[in-house]
Amino acid sequence: MSRESRAMMERGMKNEQTISAASSNANDIFFKSGGVPLFPSTFVSLPLSQYPKSPGQFFAYHWARTRHYFTGVVALLNIKLQSMDSWTTRPRWKAQRGKIPPTAKAMYREMLEAFASGDKRALEKLCTPFFAEKMSGAIDRRPRDERIHFEVVKYNKPLFYPRLSSYMISQYNPKDRVNVQEQAIVAIASTQKMHKYSARTGETVPGSVKVQDKVEYVVLMRMLNTQTYERTPWKLWGTAKTTSLESFREEQAAIEKEQTRRAGWGESAGSS
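Predicted structure:
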């Protein structure tokens, strides 16, 4: 091989490495920004009173919920076992499920208050970069002479809320072999009050007062290092909708179709 050809090959290899590194960096930024969707097969259960009425659909929905729960438990147990140096040592990682609902409750209230007051710095601290940017954009679109007052009047049904509706852990980023992502969804029931007022006079804008009873499903995300088992702080991703039987079946069908495509079964079937 000539010196010129060798130099061209080396330049090509360096360019490929640069492109690969840039692609990997862009991939990491995307996942860390929180712009990713919820985990596949995320199941946010309806309250029992809103389950499908027909017996067949009722049990189908309950079975889907139960299967989702145990799938999540197995994944959490697997991480816990991996964090044990031996069978006689304590695990370095624990789920600490009981701490998640009060954490979500406090963070979400602080986020709503920060959004109402236009505190972008607080939003950056509490939220994923993607969600914080979205909220900051909404603040920028407000009329300059208008302000918002927000308050949580009370929390409702304290025996049932806040409640951990879903807790999953997954190696969501296919290019990251070290970190996995935790996703928690917490149901919060509250009465909220909001009104707009003039920044100049402080007077309430007529017709802007709203008092609402809400059940919201707050999504938290954080990263877990599977070598050190250190976690990043929880960040607010946004809110989720409850899973209906119809939407669950549609998602499962889409997942199965994608798995079939990746396995190449559809192509071989079409060519036969």
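Summary: Confidence is low (pLDDT under 50) at residues 16-31, 268-272.
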